[in-house]
Amino acid sequence: MKIASFNINGIKARAQALTDWLDEAQPDVVVLQEIKSVDEGFPCELFEDRGYRVETHGQKSFNGVAILSRLPLEDVTRGLPGDDEDEQARWIEGTVIGDKAAVRVCGLYLPNGNPAPGPKYDYKLAWMERLKARAEALLAAEEPALMAGDYNVIPQDEDAKRPEAWRKDALALPETRAAFRRIVNLGFTEAFRAFHKGPSHYTFWDYQAGAWNRDDGIRIDHFLLTPQAADLLGDCQIDRDIRDREKPSDHVPIWITLDA
């Protein structure tokens, strides 16, 4: 089972880039972030024609997440529990039925949090507390499950080409990193770091100041796996070359394979 995460930065602007990548990479499941579309405006037919079932949790002009699955998808829910007044579309989950195992797939778009300090950063930290609570529930179920998406977290200095440039940014503040570590340390496996060590691995390059050409990137898109999912983990890679194509997202896909 190949599962990918991709912050597409606007489904209408990147439809061609996304479908080209889907045709090449052939993932079984994709969680998308920043679709920037209401549910009824999402171009479902582009993906249904390729054999994907489409589930969205959209929002006009901002945010929005989705799951595309060529495998049976059950029990889809929307919205991160813990705040009934939260109207931002940042969380979707469902159970993917593989040939060997069922996997609970959670797609997330964690708040950016800038400027920090301030209300947006308070919202980010509060959202991460809710994420921790959902993570604890996933672990308690003792089943294969994962949380994947754009975390807007640079876990360590080695995850940025120029860490000094991010010292006061909400993505790398000590409180952000500590909140992320508290989630991982519950018992999750960070899939990419299970296979790749050291610096120079990035999933995001800003559109400004020639960041891509200078490889001035950061790694902020992550897969966290429960122990039961980690036991099935076969690989994790970043499709970085996608960033060099026409009308790219500022993120690139990251994907894993599971023996499921």
What does this structure look like?
With 260 residues, the chain is α+β, with helices and mostly antiparallel strands. Helix content is 24%, strand content 27%. It has 6 helices and 14 strands. It has helices spanning 11-25, 44-48, 119-141, 174-184, 191-195, 227-230; strands at residues 2-7, 29-33, 53-57, 65-69, 73-78, 91-97, 102-109, 145-150, 189-190, 204-205, 217-218, 221-225, 233-238, 254-258. The strands form 3 sheets. The protein has a 6-stranded mixed sheet. Strands 5-6-7-8-12-9 form a 6-stranded mixed sheet. A hairpin with a 7-residue loop joins strand 3 (53-57) and strand 4 (65-69). Helix 3 runs parallel beside helix 4. The chain is globular, with a radius of gyration of 17 Å. The relative contact order is 0.17. The model has no long low-confidence stretch (mean pLDDT 98).
Provide a brief overview of the structure.
By secondary structure, the chain is α+β, with helices and mostly antiparallel strands. It has helices spanning 11-25, 44-48, 119-141, 174-184, 191-195, 227-230; strands at residues 2-7, 29-33, 53-57, 65-69, 73-78, 91-97, 102-109, 145-150, 189-190, 204-205, 217-218, 221-225, 233-238, 254-258.
